[in-house]
Amino acid sequence: MAARRPRTASEHDSDDDSYEVLDLTEYARRHHWWNRVFGRNSGPIVEKYSVATQIVMGGVTGWCAGFLFQKVGKLAATAVGGGFLLLQIASHSGYVQVDWKRVEKDVNKAKKQLKKRANKAAPEINTLIEESTEFIKQNIVVSSGFVGGFLLGLAS
C-alpha cells in the first residue's frame, strides 16, 4: 500500500509525485485484529505461535476436556441416580424408614448456610471472573479453539 508523502514548497512545482512504500507484513505484525477487538494487551501465547497452531492446541485440549467431562458426568449421574433409586426401592419395600420432615429441615438449614457463605464469597468470585475474562481476552484464539473442542468432546 502506498501513502502519499506531503509535498514541500520546492516540490510543489514539480509534476513528479513521490510515494512512500509501507511494508504490510510489518504493519500486520504490529496491528493484530484481536488488538482492535480486545485491546492492546494480547498475551504471550499470541506472539509465540501462529493462529492455526493456537486453534489446534485449544481444540485438542478442549476436546480432551469435553470427552472426560462427558464420561465422568455420565458416571457421576449414574452413581447418584442409582443411589436414589436404590434408596427409594429400599424405602418402598420397608427396609428403610425415611424421616422426610427431618430431611426437609436439614435441607432448609443447608440452604441458609449456603446463602450466608455465598454472600461472603461474592468478592472472591468476582475476582475469579475478572481474572478469567482477562485470560480469555489475552488468549482469544486458544480460548476459541478450546470452546469448540470442548463442545465436540461433549458430543462425541
Automatic annotation (TrEMBL):
Kindly report the protein's main subcellular placement as a broad class.
mitochondrion
Q: Which residues form a coiled coil?
A: none
Membrane topology recorded in Swiss-Prot or TrEMBL: Multi-pass membrane protein
Q: Does the keyword Cytoplasm apply?
A: no
Q: Where in the cell is it found?
A: Mitochondrion outer membrane
The reply on keyword Mitochondrion is yes
The record's Gene Ontology cellular component field reads: mitochondrial outer membrane
* InterPro entries attached to this UniProt entry: FUN14
Task: Report keywords, A-Z.
Answer: Autophagy, Membrane, Mitochondrion, Mitochondrion outer membrane, Transmembrane, Transmembrane helix
* Entries under Pfam families matching the protein: FUN14
| Biological process, per Gene Ontology | autophagy of mitochondrion
The family this protein is said to belong to = Belongs to the FUN14 family.
PANTHER family noted in UniProt: FUN14 DOMAIN CONTAINING, FUN14 DOMAIN-CONTAINING PROTEIN 1
Q: What is this protein called?
A: FUND1 protein
Give the organism the record lists. Smutsornis africanus
Q: What gene is this protein translated from? A: Fundc1
